Every structure is written in C-alpha cells, then in structure tokens.
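User: Here's a chain of 252 residues. Predict its fold as tokens.
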Amino acid sequence: MKAIATAIIVLFVLLLVPSGSAAAPYPDGFYEVGRIIDGDTFDLADGQRVRLIGIDAPEIGQECSDQATQALASLISGQIVYLEKDVSDTDSYGRLLRYVYVDNALVNYELVCQGFAYAEEYPPDLLHSSDLAAAEDSADLNSRGCLWGVTCPSGTYVFIAFTGSTYHKAGCQYLGQSDNTICLDEALNQGYTACSVCYEGTGGGYVVVAGGGCFISSVASGSRGASAPLDAFALILLAGLIYPAWRIRNER
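Assistant: Prediction complete.
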C-alpha cells in the first residue's frame, strides 16, 4: 500500500513539471551569434537555433532568399545580440522565438523596413505587430529591397551605423561595427547627410530621420528605450557650449 502511495505522489509531481523544462533556459539577455541560416533564422554560438518572430523572409531557394540571408548577416553576423521573448518560447521545431536587437536596433523591424522580409502575425506573439506592419507599408511605398523592387539610380552605395543619421565610407571611425549598406539615393531621401570626417567638406550635420524610415534605434511599442531624445538633448547641450565660444572669438 505504501509503495502504491509513493508511486501516485511521484506521478503527480511529474505531471506538474512542464515537459521540456530540462532544456537550457534562454531568458531575455545578450547572446553571441553563431551561424546565419536564412533571412529570418540563425544559430547562437552554442548551436541553439533562433527564429525571428513577427516576420517571414523568403525560404532558401525562393526568389530574394539570398538577399534576405545577406541582409540578416549584415546586421548580426559576429555580433552580440539581445534576445527578447514575447509570449511563446519555442516553436514546434525547438527554435527560440525572439525579437532580436543590435545596439537597440530591432533587427526584425529593419529586415521588413529594408524590404527583405514580410511582416507576419503569429498569435499570440504580437508585441511589435503594428510596428512591423507599418515597416512593410513603408518598404512597399518606397520600393525598398529585393521584395519591393528597389533600384539605385546613382549606383552608389554608402554605409550607415546602427544609430545616428549620417552616412559613411567603409572604414570610417564613426561607423563602428556596422556594415549596413544603403543606396545613396535612398539615404538622401531618408534625410541622411554625409559624415564630415570621411566625406570631407560636406558638412555631415545631424538630421533626424523621418518616422517610418528604416534604421530606427527602437520602435514605439518596444520595451527597449529610444535613443533619439538623448541624441537631441546632447546636440542642444553641445550647441549651448559651442555658441558662447563662437561669440567670444568673434567679438574680440
């Protein structure tokens, strides 16, 4: 009788423990990127596969698949990324379902806004669904990326960092670790200006990118804070320091 009671208790405890709880947990945090699989899937350095949620990039072998894979690689390859969980933890294939950030830039959003992935709702994971839908509308309206038939009339591509509103030449000290490229025409249309360091004599002043443009530092409904207000404050502070010095010099 005692053995039966013990067996019942053990069975009850096992039923309370969720299946798969023995798997290594991946809470929100920073992780090293390993291999890029396709335009919306990659492996962490430990081999755990991650699927970007809220978007759908062309599958391997489909049109624009290579471009989408390259776009994802340009954003996260060799990077330490921040993974954010929505409601679901994994899909039926055991892949982590996550929003992915690099320096506060939401990669899921960037891929859609650049025209390399579609916005796709996967309930219950809808945290950024409205932002992603707006990004797709913007990509379609502006004919960005392989999916929407973007062209580059000037034939010139420039580099942009993950934050800020200036474009750069390759190797510029202010480019950081970014290797994102964009057509010069598109950069100008979005309000980017030339970096005053690597594009000598062009000014390189700060210009706020209009809402709906790509390469934003965060999204409105996201949990990661936007950096634009801080940038604007820094510029106002800098202007307050420079202008008095300019007056003193010119009044002498």
